[in-house]
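Consortium newsletter contribution from the modelling node. Members have asked for a concrete example of what our holo predictions look like. Here is one, prepared for the cyclohexylformamide complex that several groups have been discussing at recent meetings.
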Amino acid sequence: MKTRAAVVYEHNEPVVVEELELEEPKSNEVLIRTGASGVCHSDLSVVTGAIYYNDAVALGHEGAGTIERVGDGVTDFCPGDRVILSFVTYCGTCRMCLMDKVCLCESYDVPRGFQLDGTYRLYNKSGKPIYQMARIATMSEYMVVPEQNLVKIAPHYPLEKAALVGCGVTTGVGAVLNTARVEPGSTVAVIGAGGVGLNVIQGAVLARAERIIAVDIAAKKLDLAKRFGATDVVNAGASDPIEAVREVTAGLGVDYAFEVIGNPKTIVQAYRMVRAAGTAVIVGMAHHEAEVSLPAQHLVSTERQLIGSFYGSCRPRVDMPKLLSLYEEGKLKLDELITRHYRLEQINEAFADMEAGENARGVIVFD
Ligand code: CXF
Ligand code: ZN
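And here is the predicted structure:
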């Protein structure tokens, strides 16, 4: 069958929206009609090559849709089911899945985007095979994906809201609740108040943190941060963020600092903002070749902790339905995250808006 999709052929060139041939689902795969796809900074990182795929790739890893057809052996899903796409596959048998670290499943396959059997489902008009970002490629009208990437949701949730749970919400809230396990009364700094950073702020509210200090260089984002629950804001363009955060905590430093940009400079800032024995949590995806330099003796003598958080340490089928329940109870903001809707053809405009700091989240909607 045919599907229109957003494809990266060359780094730093406009993304090509074109019709591709999509193969039918094979064993344990599912065909999905996409309802919505969020536009995440990691999609842009694939365009720039900061997240590196070694060949042409169809974009998108934050989406939700409706099952159209299922392949042989699929027993847990039926046509008509609504699902969120997880950008990690739950193979269920590797060592990380058996350790309950599902988000670190050993089948994770960047910088490639094959299906689990090592073959492609997407081909362009010249017959060239096209990878699927994170094995899913949500910026496509239809997708064929492993059933192990699916999270079934109740049918009443709007797909454009559910889509956001596929990456940004789970990554941000999960970093606080699952990875760091922030305790009530904690002081928290969040560097970067974009689509994921706002969800770190929401996570800190849910964890009942006492102070939540948002740090950004864009006044617009700091205003949004306040709406999402930041108690204090620091414009890092106007003052030294380390000093400013220390000031809020009477010189001590925060219990937790979350870096949600993926920049070595701000990663070091996060480290320097935490108190002795505090924890810096790195959430932002840096360039795949970037390295960070830290004061090695200081790390030991102050017992600071530096930890990474990938996909909010989530177990997609456990955490994503819970996040939607919190939304339903009014305890998690999803509506307010969506700044603008786009058609698939507007993907390059969506990236330009993201780079200009215009959006909390842009969302591509399909018919
Ligand atoms: C990314 C990381 C690389 C693959 C897709 C998802 N993480 C979040 O945005
Ligand atoms: Zn993402």
